[in-house]
Amino acid sequence: MGRVRDAELEQRLLAAAWDVVTNSGYDALSFARVATRADAHRSDIYRRWTTKAQLVTAAMDAHLPPVEPFDTGSLRGDIRAYLAALWESWSSEWLEVAIGVLADLDADAERTFRTLTLRRGQPLRDAIVRAVRCGELADMPDLAMLGDLLEGPLMHRRLVGRQVMTLDELDVLADIVHGLMTARTASAVPAAPAPSALPARVEAS
Questions:
Q1: Assign residue 56 a region: left if phi > 0, alpha if psi is -120 to 50, beta otherwise?
Q2: Residue 40: CB partners within 8 Å, gap ≥ 6?
Q3: Which residues, other chains included, contact 1 with Cβ-Cβ below 8 Å and sequence gap of 6+?
Q4: What region, left, alpha or beta, does residue 166 occupy, with left being phi > 0 and alpha being psi -120 to 50 degrees?
Q5: Which of 24, 54, 72, 156 could form a disulfide linkage to 77, CB 3.0–4.6 angstroms apart?
Q6: Using alpha carbons only, what angle is made at residue 20 by residues 17 and 21, rounded to the nearest 5 degrees?
Q7: Of 157, 153, 146, 98, nearest to 124 (Cα)?
Q8: Per-residue DSSP letters for 83-146?
Q9: 120-149 per-position pLDDT tens digit
């Protein structure tokens, strides 16, 4: 029974942390404020998480909406579907939480954040495996680089431009990334010989 109560308390603490950080911001979160919101003690938090970054990344892991699996039937469609999921994240209010915690990550928080990122990227990895199996791609690309290529423009627009990409721009980005990914596959297929511009050789009589 004690472990059940501990699990319930942990979920209460995570819910309280998520409520505080999404409504008031990362800087405003404190262990005392979370403990009060969860009707708990600060020691309950310290026994589980020793830093604010650890607590917040755990709350993100528990409360962020998942990236739902997709299979559009084509690599380009799957890229666009994944970009739509990224767009939902980068246009949401909770993204400010991630921005706040990124500069404060310690080793334990970074492990949680990395696990969260890998889980949310699984639908894209599944899509790439399908593309390789059906011949749309010649081989597996560098998945980490691909993730950066897809998410980088959305990140730059939100952090530097303080704007969100439009849906039309997502279409353009999907076309660009798809073109880059499939160019290598196209180059791996031998091209048909071009017809000669010269007349056929005439044998001497």
A1: alpha
A2: 9, 12, 13, 16
A3: none
A4: beta
A5: 72
A6: 85
A7: 146
A8: HHHHHHHHTSTTHHHHHHHHTT--HHHHHHHHHHHHHHTHHHHHHHHHHHHTTSSSS---HHHH
A9: 999 999 999 999 999 999 999 999 899 889
Cα dihedral 19, 25, 29, 33 in deg (nearest 10): -50
Q: Average of pLDDT values for 2-9?
A: 69
156, with CB counted inside 10 A (0-12, 13-18, 19+), is exposed
Q: Please check whether residue 62 is in contact with residue 116, taking contact to mean a CB–CB distance below 8 angstroms.
A: no
Q: What is the pLDDT of residue 200?
A: 44
Question: What is the CA angle 146-110-173, rounded to 5?
Answer: 20
